[in-house]
Write a structure and sequence with these properties.
This protein is of the alpha+beta class and 144 residues long. The protein is 38% helix and 12% strand.
Length: 144
């Protein structure tokens, strides 16, 4: 499903970006596809998300999620849900090491951009089994 573009609401966005261009996929999983700026933005969003999980910073994690994921659920804000999720995750044996590994992998993982959708190929999915990011709200956001 394609999400409609929305006005800028994310304080993380400093630079304007004309929008993602469509790029054909290549057969190689080791190469990134897209412009250098697109690839850098995807890596930055993924890095901010993983760092927020490591730091137990639900507010920063939510800042990288798409709007539908940031809403209140069961009387709990997005930040409250992610603070609880991150605390549980960080106390799971091996989880911190896996997050540190993901953070290192993000810097080198292949990124493939197709229009308004991008994927980053890290060893552990960023969220809910997905490594997909969407160009929405004038920035790249993690979609679960």
């Amino acid at each position: 499903m394609r999400l409609a573009r929305r006005p800028v609401v994310n304080a993380l966005v400093v630079l304007g970006f004309a929008g993602a261009l469509a790029w054909p996929a290549t057969g190689s999983a080791t190469q990134s596809v897209g412009t250098a700026a697109q690839i850098a933005w995807v890596r930055s969003a993924a890095s901010r998300f993983v760092t927020a999980e490591l730091d137990g910073d639900g507010e920063s994690a939510c800042a990288v999620l798409t709007k539908p994921q940031r809403g209140e659920v069961g009387g709990r804000t997005c930040a409250q849900r992610w603070d609880a999720r991150s605390a549980k995750l960080r106390h799971t044996p091996g989880a911190r090491a896996a997050l540190h590994k993901d953070l290192v992998e993000v810097a080198h993982a292949p990124v493939v951009v197709h229009g308004d959708v991008a994927t980053i190929d890290v060893g552990t999915p960023l969220m809910s089994g997905s490594d997909k990011l969407l160009w929405t709200e004038n920035c790249w956001m993690v979609e679960g």
